[in-house]
Amino acid sequence: MRTATIHRKTNETEISIDLDLDGTGTYDVSTGIGFLDHMLEQLSRHSLIDLRLKAIGDLHIDQHHTTEDSGIALGEAITRALGNRRGITRYGHAYAPMDETLTRCAIDISGRPYLVWKTEFSQPQLGALDTELIEHFFHSVAGAAGITLHIETLYGRNNHHIVESVFKAFARALRIAIEIDPRKGDAIPSTKGTLGGAGPGGISGAHG
Questions:
Q1: CA proximity to 101, closest of 152, 158, 150, 46
Q2: pTM for the whole thing?
């Protein structure tokens, strides 16, 4: 059973997650940020990861801490559920069209956290969510999960479509990367013999 339960509490947020990598895409999400809830539901449905996520944060200040810590807790749950990562496909990529928008995502469950982000928005908010926090969310997930993550929106105009295509592309790529490859048995997919988690240096970011 590749499952994980995370409870993360700080002075700014309190987040609980139950996650099943081998689920059917059922979800129960509540962060207090409606648009973020909608995107996390898309992530669950299209990755087939069962996700229960409850977050209570200092939304009277802004959405930054809740969005960031939700990403960190999600990344921690993914890496805990993966365990030693034996037998996984490791790499995954996907294109997600959303009307006029097209986004591609490539993932390496490498143990080396890194984010390349090439997506831009033309408005500061979607619903109550600051669009600049979308990148920060994926930065947090990649760092906590120890994954190399490349996200690029090739074209698009509608900001809602852009964000939704990003989450769907990520979900589909993640679904492929975490799948057990029957040809690998219980082998770790690395010539080094290990796929560790994030190191003490945290995450490097490449933006542009």
A1: 158
A2: 0.90
